[in-house]
Design goal:
The chain is an all-alpha fold. The chain has 15 helices and no strands. Helix 6 packs antiparallel against helix 7 and helix 8 packs antiparallel against helix 9.
Length: 315
């Protein structure tokens, strides 16, 4: 579909090489095909005709972000916000690229701005929670994660983030409750099992903690995790050591020895089969996979199949 659109727009551009509407729409089709560099070039040419077009600036920012040109993307989003200051999606994208540049306080400001315009947006709350945690503002991070969890009760990663942030501020009982919510959604989430074990260990409930660590180990070793990444040997060692500690605190020394021997066996297996399936994966948001501005009005569009969707939904 997008290939056909590119062909149609290219044919039109052979007659009108600098038509901004056609360039804009071809850029949308090219970007949908993953050809971000050529999409950026088309949008740059279109912006020569209309340098204050907020939608073109926004989409060029997305194309640049997809090429990891975060500085160029941030510049485009900033210009787009000058023209369209009340667009929460532009605020979110600006925040994402600022975070990628380690400009965390500025990113928080932009997520806050988006949330003023779009209260309760789960994506923005979750992203701001992660940034606040990185900045050391753990209690504010918990508040954002709690609001996100209430807004997305079926989202495993949002619920997991809430549980982990509760753990980080020492709210062990609340964190175990949040872990139970995650495990009701996905009983094979290794990160939630590990978080549960850690919190129970902090509460002095060593037998229960050892059991949860054992469940996590069983899932990792058998290769049945729930995400596309991979656990490292270090993860195996940490889980085995945590379980061994809980067993030792109960005086179960023979089980500690068996646990350590199993750790050696698993590490030997890992050496020969290094990719061990994981539990829940990373919580980072993709900069590129975000809502786009519509390319033009229905009257202007040459090939409607190439037009991106109107922004909507979470940041």
């Amino acid at each position: 579909m997008h290939d056909a659109a590119v062909a149609d727009y290219s044919a039109a551009l052979s007659q009108q090489p600098r038509n901004p509407v056609v360039l804009y729409n071809r850029a949308a089709a090219l970007d949908a095909l993953g050809n971000h560099a050529t999409a950026e070039a088309d949008l740059t040419t279109a912006l020569e005709h209309d340098p204050h077009n907020a939608a073109a600036l926004y989409n060029r920012g997305l194309a640049r972000a997809a090429q990891n040109n975060h500085q160029g993307a941030a510049h485009d989003f900033s210009l787009a916000l000058e023209q369209d200051p009340n667009n929460p999606h532009v605020c979110c994208q600006h925040a994402h690229v600022l975070a990628a540049m380690d400009m965390l306080p500025e990113a928080v400001v932009n997520f806050t701005r988006a949330l003023v315009l779009m209260p309760g947006d789960v994506g923005a709350l979750r992203a701001r929670a992660v940034l606040l945690q990185r900045l050391g503002n753990h209690h504010a991070a918990v508040e954002d994660a709690q609001a996100a969890a209430l807004g997305a009760p079926g989202d495993v990663e949002v619920q997991l983030l809430y549980a982990q942030l509760l753990r980080d501020v020492g709210r062990w009982d609340d964190a175990t409750t949040a872990c139970h919510v995650v495990l009701q959604l996905d009983g094979r989430c290794v990160d939630a099992l590990n978080c549960m074990g850690y919190c129970l260990r902090k509460l002095g409930r060593m037998e229960e903690a050892a059991s949860w660590y054992g469940r996590a180990l069983g899932i990792v070793v058998e290769g049945g995790g729930t995400d596309g990444g991979g656990h490292t040997a270090a993860v195996l060692v940490r889980l085995h050591n945590a379980r061994a500690y809980c067993l030792a605190m109960q005086g179960k020394l023979q089980e500690v020895l068996r646990c350590l021997l199993m750790c050696g066996d698993h590490l030997h297996h890992h050496h020969h089969h290094p990719t061990i399936p994981p539990g829940c994966g990373p919580l980072h948001s993709s900069v590129a996979a975000r809502p786009r501005q519509p390319p033009c009005t229905a009257q202007q569009s040459i090939h409607t199949a190439a037009a991106p969707a109107t922004p909507g939904g979470p940041c």
